[in-house]
Amino acid sequence: MESESKRKKESPNTAExxxxxxxxxxxLEIVLSLLTSHRDRSSVSLVCKDWYRAERWSRTQVFIGxxxxxxxxxxxxxxxxxxxxxxxGKPRFSDxxxxxxxxxxxxxxxxxxxxxxxxxxxxxxLKRMAVSDESLEFLxxxxxxFKLLSLLxxxxxxxxxxxxxxxxxxxxxxxxxxxxxxxxxxxxxxSCFPESFTSLEVLNFANLTSExxxxxxxxxxxxCKSLKVLKVNKSISLEQLQRLLVRAPQLEELxxxxxxxxxxxxxxxxxxxxxxxxxxxxxxxxxxxAVPLYLxxxxxxxxxxxxxxxxxxxxxxxxxAKLVVHCPRLRRLWVLDTVEDKGLEAVxxxxxxxxxxxxxxxxxFDEEIIHGVTEEGFVAVSFGCRRLHYVLYFCRQMTNAAxxxxxxxxxxxxxxxxxxMTPGLPDYLTNEPMDEAFGAVVKTCSKLQRLSVxxxxxxxxxxxxxxxxxxxxxxxxxxxxRSDRGMQCVLEGxxxxxxxxxxxxxxxxxALLSGLEKYESMRSLWMSACNVTMxxxxxxxxxxxxxxxxxxxxxxxxxxQADKVYxxxxxxxxxxxxxxxVLTL
Amino acid sequence: MIHMMMELQLGLALPSIATTxxxxxxxxxxxxxxxxxPKDSDPSSWNINSYFGSSASVPGKCSTTNSSNGNKKxxxxxxxxxxxxxxxxxxxxxxxxxxxxxxxxxxxxxxxDNNSSFGSNKTVDDEDGVHVVGWPPIKNWRKKLCHxxxxxxxxxxxxxxxxVANNGSACGGRQSNSMYVKVKMEGVAIARxxxxxxxxxxxxxxxxxxxxxxxxxxxxxxxQLTYQDRxxxxxxxxxxxWRTFIQTVQRLNLSRSGG
Lengths: 585, 259
Fold this sequence. Notes:
- Chain B: Aux/IAA proteins are short-lived transcriptional factors that function as repressors of early auxin response genes at low auxin concentrations.
- Chain B: InterPro entries: AUX/IAA_dom, AUX_IAA, PB1-like.
- Chain B: Homodimers and heterodimers.
- Chain B: Keywords: Auxin signaling pathway, Nucleus, Repressor, Transcription, Transcription regulation.
- Chain B: It is found in: Nucleus.
- The structure holds two protein chains of two kinds.
- Chain A is of the alpha/beta class.
- Chain A contains 22 helices and 23 strands.
- Chain A has a domain at about 435-445 and about 460-585: Leucine-rich repeat, LRR (right-handed beta-alpha superhelix), CATH 3.80.10.
- In chain A, the strands form two sheets. Chain A has a 21-stranded mixed beta sheet, covered by helices on one side.
- By secondary structure, chain B is of the alpha+beta class.
- Chain B has a domain at about 180-260: Phosphatidylinositol 3-kinase Catalytic Subunit, Chain A, domain 1 (Ubiquitin-like (UB roll)), CATH 3.10.20.90.
- Helices cover about 20% and strands about 15% of the residues of chain B.
- Chain B has eight helices and nine strands.
- Chain B has helices spanning about 1-10, 75-80, 110-115, 140-145, 145-150, 200-215, 215-220, 240-250; strands spanning about 35-40, 85, 125, 130, 180-185, 190-195, 225-230, 235, 250-255.
- In chain B, the strands form three sheets. Chain B has a five-stranded mixed beta sheet with strand order 6-5-9-7-8, with helices on one face. A two-stranded antiparallel ribbon of chain B has the order 1-2. A two-stranded antiparallel sheet of chain B has the order 3-4.
- Chains A and B meet through loops of A and strand 4, helix 4 and strand 5 of B.
């Protein structure tokens, strides 16, 4: 990689170009095929025509962050040898119901193009795409080498589609179905894996709800000797889990089923021994409805855990603290806020290697809950876990001083996502805006790539961000700011900004239009419930033909207001599959 | 109108969002920093029945009738009379109750600057109550996980349970031996929380409430205790047996007569 970029700088005159031109293409392709980073590959392709050509022929993986930024035709024309595709579709705020249904991002047209141009496609990773059963059937039948399917936050399909995959994909190694809006009609899809099928390495169906045939699952697990990742759903009981573990001691990542069962002594001992036998487990999740009584069965397994995901189960602080004592090697931890500050203190005391913490709210809409976590828990973790660099924290109160302390302890944050759940809430001790908190974050954490802000914020927060957050790539803003100036500061100041998503802020046309050139260097901009008008959007669309400017109107809103705006750069022109609720300007 | 908005900006900054649903009326959650006291009151919104007294229907704010969406909303005028609001200007700032009724867009102090509302944002009235679409930013499937947790039948139980009840709670039921509900008293900024498992009758409950809000016993007769049940309806506490009350109460309100 180093030599590649050095060479880029050293190509000055024609004599030297003649020398490099005689460098055999095949060798160049082999060298370039070692490059995996998408950014490196992009750089390489810009060097000269030969390198562009070599890069396109040698590339086997492609990552498309916005499925509408390019078309299947353009993609397949440029890259003839793709084996692995990653596609992301809808804007992230679709996760929170802010995007109308049938918005788009349908995979089918892509699959049709791939069937023609990439018949040897092996891997497909989709995020926030619309996937139908028909598409899954098409996928299963048209790609004989297909190995890996990962669907994250997708919707539109049912377990029938999964049945098609299980039935036809003879070489499947990975089936990862996460967090999807899936219609789960029956668990019989799992029984569709033929008895001759043995190649599975990753199986994740944790978020499905129907019962699967446990015999079929046991047989599947028994014969797939390379199975490394198994994440079952809630319908699998503890006893069934024990039988699975016994058949797969080589597992590295485990998602348990329900942890709630009346186990007598013998089955409990069996469970514990089954866990002890799985010496390679480094990732643990599931634990639905975990009863503290059975958690000790895990204690020995916890010694080697690097990732513990307890975000599906409401553990209290005491039982959680007892568990976490056994997890000294933890690097990533996801929990519910039922563990409270005391639980987080235990994390600070026991997990010095922690790098990532996510605390989700157990009852986000219940104002009567007096539990949950506060700034104290976060501060406690920061004192004990100096390597912390990724945080997602939902809380009901925060102070500027606490955040300042936190980033002083942990200056290496790359991802800082703080959600104070009441919009516009000030520092509860001083009653001041939370500007200084995020100011401290951006001043101290020079490596910051992703930031989500919350609480009462004036334009000052955005001045800080524009001035200091030089590595910021993704910014999420809600219920914040005072004037256009806020957004302008960010657009002018953050050179690496790629994704900006804004909702319910007083940013208007002046702010929108100040970013004209900027948007071409970004992946996308989302603005909803702000002060942007249709005319401003039209002006933007007119001046910047390489941007798609899409507006989604709400029922009954003023004709001149652009309620939701989604702007993204594209080489594919305006899309033709937009539903009536989405206007392309 | 401008005068009204200035009052709001001074003391009662409300969340910005214009709604397309024209939710009328709103409820303050004054757990935030400051105090506001209406100088006078619109008699129609205060209850002039005595505390634990008659079972006359409560006009204005409270109602014993069901409505299809369970929203018992006062109009802005009933809630308080703007002319008489005497706000103590705090150093801040927004004051909201995002889990409850939603303000009209004209109440947004930030409108003062550009005189336009924020643009629409839907409120959603679902089992979780009335709240803003997509906030807090939690994925749907995760919200569903804890949904049953939020609506355990019969409220939080009094007795501790060693093993989680098999009620299908996806989050692994919260074992709790307390039952906190919020208590709001008219004219008092800060709502309080009270553990209902500590009481076994309206008498003991109200005695505590009197003490909690610093009322003199004589004054307490001016107050009526009402509660919101699981369907969102506001009912008079004394109208139902204690057992019924305990199983269905979500929050309490002490309202008083004018003067």
